[in-house]
Amino acid sequence: MRIFSDLNDHQCVALAQTGDGKAFSEIVMRYQDRIYRFLVRLTHSPDAALDLTQDTFLRAYQSLERWRPDAQFKTWLFQIARNIAFDRLRREKRVAFVELEEDFALQEDPAAGPDALLETAQRYRLLETALAKLPAEHREILLLREIEEMTYDEIALVLELNLGTVKSRIARARTALLAHIEH
Fold first, then answer.
1. Which of 31, 33, 25, 61 minimizes the C-alpha distance to 49?
2. How many C-beta atoms lie closer than 10 Å to residue 43's C-beta?
3. Comparing C-alpha atoms, which of 21, 148, 19 is closest to residue 81?
4. Residue 21 is inside which H or E element, if any?
5. What is the model's pTM?
6. Which of 83, 130, 144, 146 has the most CB atoms around it within 10 Å of its CB?
7. Which of 77, 72, 63 is nearest to 29 (CA)?
């Protein structure tokens, strides 16, 4: 009996490419929450994000033969999710935002007093408001960098941008975010 949790992404994908459904199930288990989180923030709809998450993994499974071992599977998967989400948002002619509080659930210190809890909640609301005012390309790049903790190289692959563009876009997005927070 093979234990897939001991395998890295490349190994699981290689097995899935040979038709091993359990290997692909392991990939789904590893990434479904992250993909869903990313999509719910882009669509502002938990229901749409669920559908898009399923569509992402379906498309990934159907396209496994096109994945190249020299590419990082995570970035390939996020690229599929992003493309599916933006296709849907373009069709619906909307781009939305989901509050951070849903994910972070105010991860404060349990020993913190009511004043500290209130201050943390206020900071989250301020950040949420500022993020909601950003253009989709700025919001998206900040989510990938700060929430999904992707490297600049990974973001460049997901967004199909060169590294310099990623760096400048992140800098512009951070500047815009700070400007919205200060107002």
1. 33
2. 24
3. 148
4. helix 21-43
5. 0.72
6. 144
7. 77
Please name the residue ranges forming H helices in 63-151: 73-92, 101-104, 114-133, 136-142
User: What is the Cα–Cα distance from 79 to 154, expressed in whole angstroms?
Assistant: 10
Q: What's the CA gap between 93 and 123, in Å, rounded?
A: 30
Distance CA(66)–CA(157), nearest Å, equals: 15
Size (the chain), residues: 183
The answer to whether 30 and 9 are in contact (CB under 8 A) is: yes
Tens-place pLDDT, residues 48-98: 999 999 999 999 999 999 888 888 899 999 999 999 988 887 787 654 444
DSSP state of 146: I
Question: In whole angstroms, what is the distance from residue 73 CA to residue 67 CA?
Answer: 8
Both structure tokens of 142: 């900040």
Tokens 């009511």 locate to 114
- The residue to which tokens 């310099």 are assigned: 164
Contact 34, 93 (CB under 8 A): no
